[in-house]
Major facilitator transporter
Amino acid sequence: MTPASRSTPTDDSTTVSRHALHALVASALGYAMDGFDLLILGFMLPAIAADLHLTPAQSGALVTWTLAGAVAGGVVFGMLSDYFGRVRVLTWTILLFAVFTGLCAFSRGYGDLLIYRTIAGIGLGGEFGIGMALVAEAWPARLRARVSSYVGIGWQAGVLAAALITPLLLPVIGWRGMFAVGLLPAVVSFFVRRHVEEPVLFTERRAAVANTEPATRKLPLKRLFDDARTARASLGVIILCSVQNFGYYGLMIWLPSYLSKTFGYSLTKSGLWTAATVLGMAAGIWLFGVAADRFGRKPTFLVYQFGAVAMVFVYSNLSSPAALLIGGAVMGVFVNGMLGGYGALISEIYPTEARATAQNVLFNIGRAVGGLGPVAVGALAARYSFALALAFLASIYLLDVIATLFLIPEKRGAELE
């Protein structure tokens, strides 16, 4: 095999700058659109409810069915990506998401808006895992965790953009105009088709699989439980993703209310203090990628998990504005910084013909479990206190520690299969 036909990315700077960089930008932008969309929906719910006369249950269902669509889309598009290609299917997901987000602007009532949001969610769910697989296959092993963390930072960038743009635009263009802004991902999809190529690793592996007997091929979903070792790793990844999403949604949904009801912060002040936590999360994701490439996946996960246990508990006992501002940022580093490690970790455990399936299925199972986080925190806060609810969140990260120690393999620097 000649150097030009190698099935893994090389350290050649031309390859990285021309192909890998385009893959990274496309993947990060796609995931940024996900974060942007979900947060602007939260901002717009009061205006939508008032205009379309929605009940609180119907307003909540718009969010619930968007996430339900994301879980379904993650499973379906992950498998399609392993069959038909990362770039092609990533384009499908972005276009589906963009078109049906745009159609929400023309909704006449609850029924059609719910349908549009669910289908948009299906497109949204596919972008994370496909983007992570695309980046992992396009970049060299020594930078794999770092560039995967950049994709994760895309979500935080989208959230921050929504937090800054929505209050300015919503009073001017209304909720229908904000949904029209959701057509912007179509521009990203055009970029993907024009400037991003399928990784060499994927095209070579697909050709090799095509030459095997159909009867001997396994469905991508079955490859996640191929043998005892892989099944253990899959269970471990599910636990990691579930705890991370549970903690993230449990904190982010209730943090503004915690600051407002416990300390009397205004809406603006609560938003600013929450933004500090979000910035900490972005910094934590970046730092995780750097550390994981240098010291290994498992040691970095363990440091972050113990850090999350400590900082969520510490934060629940803070009271002064300065301590809450700084403590929130440090807590964000550990609580959501682990998002920077899933892309590289999952990519290294599973073969190319099941990599996108693994990324999307395992992470979206975690997202589904994580959706219970706000419910659990809200129930504990109502019965006891927010401080106790946060202390409960701190304890769940101990499950992550156990899973990392006994179920997760260390594959830093491994060439992808």
User: Anything to note?
Assistant: Residues 13-52 form the longest helix (40 residues). The radius of gyration is 21 Å. The CA atoms of residues 97 and 120 lie 4 Å apart. Confidence is low (pLDDT under 50) at residues 1-7, 10-15.
